[in-house]
Amino acid sequence: MAAYGLYTHIASNRLRSMLLLAGLFVLIYVMVFAGALIAEVMRSDGRTVNFYVAAATRDLIQAFPWATIAAVLWIVIAYFFHQKIIDVVTGGRDVTRAEQPRLYNLLENLCISRGIPMPRLKIMESPALNAFATGLNPRQYAVTVTSGLLAALDDREMEAVLGHELTHIRNGDVQMMVVAVIIAGVIGFAGELLFRMFFNGGIRFGGGRSSSSSDSNRKGGGGGAIVAVLLAVALIALAWFLSQVVRLALSRSREFLADAGSVELTKDPDAMISALRKIENRGELPGATSAVMELCVDNPREGFADLFATHPSVDSRVQALVKFAGGHDPGPLAPPLDEGVSPTGPAASGTANDDGSAPGPWGPHSNLSGPDASPLPRKYRDALKLWQKHFPNGPWGLR
User: Fold this and answer.
1) Mean pLDDT within 114-126
2) Which residues have C-beta within 8 Å of that of residue 290, sequence separation ≥ 6?
3) How far apart are CA 269 and CA 50, in angstroms?
4) How far apart are CA 186 and CA 193, in angstroms?
5) CA neighbor of 76 nearest in space, from 171, 233, 232, 183
6) For residue 387, which of 352, 354, 363 has the smallest C-alpha distance?
C-alpha cells in the first residue's frame, strides 16, 4: 500500500514486518527439511537425489506440527523471561522517581502528553551512550538508559531519546524485534547443531538399509547422497543468511520512523539530531549480545560493507531529520578515545585547572579534549603528550 504520511508509513511498515516474520517461520521449515535430508542420507544406502528429496518431504510433513509447536513454545518462554535475560546480560536495574527525578519526570511528561502508559525505567551502569526499549506487553514495557547517556545529554536531548524509545513501544517495534531475534536465534542454533552433528560426528553415508534394496532406488550410488548433503548444507546456509537479512530489514526500517516519532512527540528535531551526534560511535555496550545492540538507539557494530549493519548510519538519519523535519545539523563530533572516556570534562565547562592554568592541550592537567569537549584521536593525544612533557607551560617556554 502507498504511504504518504507518518502514520500510513507506520501501518505500511507494520504490514511488511508481519510478512517478514511469516518468512522467518518458513525458514524454520526449510531448516527442518535440510535436517531431514541429512537424516535420510545417514540411514540409507546410496540412492538417487530424488529418493532423498521425496523422503525428506515426507519427513517434513510429519514434523510440520511439531516444528510449529516448538517454535511457538520458544516464543512463549521468551515472552515471560526475555526481560530478565536482558537485565542479566546488561546489568540494568529498575529506578524510581526518588532515585532519578530528572529522568523519571522527563519520561512521565512525554507519556502524559500522549496518553502513553508509563513503562518501567531502568539504568545500566556504563560509560557508553545508548538506550533501548524492551517488553512484549504493557506490563513488561521498559526503557533502559546508560549512566553515560544520562551524564552526556541535556534535558532536551534526553527527552528526544526517550521519545525515540517510546515510539518504538507505541509502534509495536519492540515486540516485533524480540520475536524476530528469537526465531532467528532458533534458526541459527539449529543450523549450528546440524553442522556440528554432520561434520564433527563422524557420520558416514549409508549403512542403515538392506543391500537387497531395489536397483531403481540405489541408482546413482553414493553420488546421490553427496548431492543431497550439498543441497542440505546450501539450504542451511541460505536459511541462516535470510534470517539475518530479515532481522536487519526489521531493525533498519524502524529507526527512521522512531526518529520521526520522537520529533512528533517533542516538536524539537534539533534535539534529536544533537542527541544522535553525541551518541554516534559512542554506544558500544561491553558484553552485550548482538540481539541487545539491535534494540539500541544506535548500534556502532558494523558488518561487511555495511551489509549487516542493524541501524542506518547516523548521517542518513540526521539528513532525514534535516530534510523532512526542518532540523539543523551541527556536524559530527570528534571521534571518542579508544578507552572510552566520557565526552564531558573540564574543557566542556571552560573551568581552570587545579594550578590555575587554563584548560587545553598545554596545561599539566589537560584532558586533551578539543573545544567541543570531544576527545581527540589517539595519534593526536600521543603527540600532545610529548608536547606536555617537554613544554609544560606551552610551546613558547620551558619550565
Assistant:
1) 91
2) 301, 310
3) 60
4) 10
5) 183
6) 363
Q: Which of 165, 255, 284, 294 is catalytic?
A: 165
pLDDT > 70 in the chain, percent = 67
**Residue 14, H or E segment:** helix 6-43
Q: Look at the alpha carbons of 383, 384, 389, 395 in this order and tell me if their dihedral is positive or negative.
A: positive
CB 343 within 8 A of CB 336: yes
Q: Cα angle vertex 188, ends 183, 189, to 5°?
A: 95
Q: Report d(CA 125, CA 165) in Å as an integer.
A: 19
Residue 255 is a catalytic residue: no
pLDDT digits (tens, 9 = 90+) for 164-213: 999 998 888 887 777 777 777 777 777 777 767 666 655 555 544 444 44
* Other CB atoms within 10 A of residue 140 CB: 17
d(CA 393, CA 399) in angstroms, rounded, equals 6
33-37, 144-148, 284-288, 384-388: least confidently modelled range: 384-388
pTM over 0.70: no
Span 306-339, pLDDT tens digits: 445 568 889 999 999 999 999 999 999 876 554 4
Sort 357 into a burial class: Cβ within 10 Å, 0-12 / 13-18 / 19+: middle
Task: Kindly tell me if the per-residue pLDDT of 362 is higher than 80.
Answer: no
Report phi then psi at 13, rounded to 5: -65, -35
Cα separation, 139 vs 283, in Å, equals: 27
> How many CA atoms lie less than 13 Å away from 131 in the CB half-sphere?
33
Element (H, E) at 104: helix 101-114
286 band by pLDDT with thresholds 50, 70 and 90: confident
Using CA atoms, how far residue 372 sits from 335, 378, 387, in Å, is: 11, 17, 21
